């Protein structure tokens, strides 16, 4: 099956390549460089001010996050002390007495 498909493709390419109309079209094709193409490649590099602005904005964001983590850590750890589970009684834990 692959051989038959390759044969058909070869005949098609031979017919297209031998046609005088297609040769003239390929030679006279215009190449326009009006914009940057980013398909499967990197886009244009941003300006220096954009890169510096992004670094400054990222620095300010991390400063804000780390400042509040240091000064308002209760948002993460909670406001109240965690109770000591060794001080809980069996009744509070719902454990029945040994004599039952």
TrEMBL record:
| Superkingdom of this protein's organism | Eukaryota
**Membrane topology summary:** Peripheral membrane protein
* Protein keywords: Electron transport, Membrane, Mitochondrion, Mitochondrion inner membrane, Respiratory chain, Signal, Transit peptide, Transport, Ubiquinone
Transit peptide among the record's keywords? yes
User: GO annotations under biological process?
Assistant: mitochondrial respiratory chain complex I assembly
Signal peptide from the UniProt entry: 1-18
For whether the record's keyword set contains Transport, the answer is yes
Q: What GO CC annotations are associated with the protein?
A: mitochondrial inner membrane; respiratory chain complex I
Q: From the Swiss-Prot or TrEMBL record, state where the protein is found.
A: Mitochondrion inner membrane
Q: Which InterPro entries match?
A: NDUFB2_animal
Q: What is its main location?
A: mitochondrion
Name the job this protein performs. Answer: Accessory subunit of the mitochondrial membrane respiratory chain NADH dehydrogenase (Complex I), that is believed not to be involved in catalysis. Complex I functions in the transfer of electrons from NADH to the respiratory chain. The immediate electron acceptor for the enzyme is believed to be ubiquinone.
Tell me its family. Answer: Belongs to the complex I NDUFB2 subunit family.
Describe the subunit structure.
Answer: Complex I is composed of 45 different subunits.
Record's protein name: Putative nadh dehydrogenase ubiquinone 1 beta subcomplex subunit 2 mitochondrial
State the organism named in the record. Aedes albopictus (Asian tiger mosquito)
